[in-house]
């Protein structure tokens, strides 16, 4: 039994450890969000809803078929359905009918309804595409924020290691009488401040991980983590393109404009459907009916009566609208106003998109300049820190000046991290506007 239990225990333990140590990549996070996000699921349901709308529109081209039957018991003076005579007796009767109707012309409203259903399906697909773009971008932003916070935590920890090493050297210099004991106290204060900053940085990482997990609808916050990958700045040439070219591409590919365009087309179809009510409606009909009564004097059986008492009717029906209390005219007016409103919305969507692209373009260029400036500043602060360290090691500067130099170096590294990830995100936003699919973004 022990031979079986021990391997089983280690198997369960290894599975548990594997589950706890899973680190999510950015692509895995995006794919998980696109499958599980509630807003995406709602957009998918909206797309399925348009399938029902299209099915109903197709049904308008098919004939309607209805059947009915009834059975009754009559006592006293009643009409015999087989001979249309009033009889003062008790008898049972039954009747049945099948009716077929078909619309030949209804002002082309059935055609317009089908066209509208297809447009509605395209509009729902564009809304789903936009929702996926928004979710993918939100996940990428949240993911990069976690990476930034982790990078800052690494800076804090690595610099604290330097402080602890410096404490040992300072202690030796104090013992040798090269430095005053006050410098040792200054290093201790620096160590305490850095440990506090590490604790804050750890909390910041944990909070950003929880935010990302919530976005992905992952409940196991304690074991959720992402892969510590080194994301580089990958520019596919978008930064060198003219802003007018990016705007034109955005108008052709972005879902915001496509959705607004489909709303205009839907409003046009609604107006055509409303105007169709001005036209006459022509329909064809066919009906078959039969009846039975159990007081037949000739004692014919059930099947024979149904055969002898049946009948058919068929013909055409024309319905010409003459006056309907202005309901059709009012409906047409409302749809005209709605069409004009959607045209304004399309114009506004194009203006908003142009403004957003300009803003993204300016943000990306500004983020690049900020990153380049932060890189230069980091190089300068690193040289200054190394110079201060060398001077401190030989007792030419005090601990306070050295700690200030190290603090400026730490802040420069944090700022370089921040501007780097901000530029990566701004660059990817610009690529999305240019028409690059979220799944094709390179990090």
UniProtKB/TrEMBL annotation:
The keyword Coiled coil applies. The keyword Glycoprotein does not apply. Residues 1-19 form the signal peptide. Pfam families: OEP. Gene3D superfamilies: Outer membrane efflux proteins (OEP) (1.20.1600.10). Residues 243-270 form a coiled coil. Its main location: membrane. Keywords: Cell outer membrane, Coiled coil, Membrane, Signal, Transmembrane, Transmembrane beta strand, Transport. It is found in: Cell outer membrane. It comes from the Bacteria. Belongs to the outer membrane factor (OMF) (TC 1.B.17) family. This is TolC family protein.
